[in-house]
């Protein structure tokens, strides 16, 4: 009898594994980071992601994701898991619960460098109601034709946000609104517009925050340059920082999943730069 029970249990478990598809993804980088308010630092980072997907008999898709991160800056290691998320999808769109982002973060500018020098942060300061926290624990996504909708909610703080994006050909327009709950009642509205002609693309954004010191604006532009891959320029400012931030960077594919990238600029009044190689696998 025990053998029959064990065999039945193994069969059910095997059938469960066969019904789900599991995949691993990863990325890593290594390079040098510089800021004139500190010293030049060696940085290394490894990110691993696991995802399992499946579908119920009723046609509801599901996905379970979790990430592991390890990074070392000047021999000081930091390691941890991202908390993971579970997603259900169907005719209603998709609902993702866990370690997710505020819908306000869907409006933004391009990061520069192999590990982001932060030149875009000044422009993005006013896009979320709580400027120090862009997280949530529930996301909803829905797409129809050229329109993409997103909403988010944080059950711990009652912060909520929503965004809508429309694209047609080379033109893309986005708008978001975020409102803080238990954290103080602030709200923020952000908008962006972008277009591309040939290999040249430009994106502009602006954000208005109920705390006037956090109003912000910014622009990014990129184009292909022989020998440097894609070159991108970013600038941004807000009512809090005493100086505008800016940066220029490049990203060049080396083949085999490797990309050489670097940037130089000024973030919050500090000269910043980085140069390194990123890997995806």
Give the tally of β-strands. Answer: 17
Radius of gyration from the alpha-carbon trace, in angstroms: 22 Å
Q: What structural class should be given to the helix and strand makeup?
A: mainly beta
> Under the CATH scheme, which architecture would be assigned?
Beta Barrel
The third-level CATH topology is Porin
The biggest sheet, with number of strands, parallel, antiparallel or mixed sense and barrel status, is: 16 strands, antiparallel, barrel
Q: Tell me the helix content.
A: under 10%
Termini separation (Å)?
47 Å
Low confidence ranges: 1-18
For this entry, give a set of tags.
281 residues; Porin; 16-stranded antiparallel barrel; mainly beta; 8% helix; globular
């Amino acid at each position: 009898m025990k053998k029959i029970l064990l065999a039945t249990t193994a069969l059910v478990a095997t059938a469960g594994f066969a019904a789900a598809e599991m995949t691993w993804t990863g990325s890593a980088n290594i390079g040098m980071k510089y800021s004139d308010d500190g010293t030049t630092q060696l940085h290394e980072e490894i990110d691993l992601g696991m995802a399992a997907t499946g579908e119920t008999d009723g046609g509801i898709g599901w996905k379970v994701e979790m990430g592991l991160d390890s990074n070392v800056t000047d021999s000081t290691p930091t390691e941890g898991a991202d908390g993971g998320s579970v997603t259900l999808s169907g005719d209603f769109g998709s609902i993702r619960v866990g370690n997710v982002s505020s819908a306000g973060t869907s409006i933004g500018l391009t990061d520069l460098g192999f590990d982001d020098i932060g030149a875009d942060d000044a422009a993005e300061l006013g896009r979320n109601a709580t400027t120090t926290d862009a997280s949530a624990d529930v996301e909803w996504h829905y797409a129809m034709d050229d329109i993409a909708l997103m909403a988010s909610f944080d059950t711990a703080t009652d912060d909520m946000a929503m965004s809508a994006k429309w694209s047609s050909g080379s033109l893309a327009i986005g708008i978001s609104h975020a409102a803080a709950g238990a954290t103080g009642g602030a709200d923020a509205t952000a908008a962006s517009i972008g277009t591309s002609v040939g290999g040249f693309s430009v994106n502009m954004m602006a954000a208005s925050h109920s705390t006037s010191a956090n109003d912000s604006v910014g622009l990014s532009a990129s184009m292909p340059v022989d020998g440097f891959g894609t070159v991108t320029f970013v600038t941004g400012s807000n009512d809090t920082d005493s100086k505008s931030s800016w940066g220029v960077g490049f990203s060049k594919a080396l083949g085999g999943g490797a990309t050489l990238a670097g940037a130089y600029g000024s973030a919050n009044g500090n000269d910043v730069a980085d140069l390194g190689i990123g890997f995806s696998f």
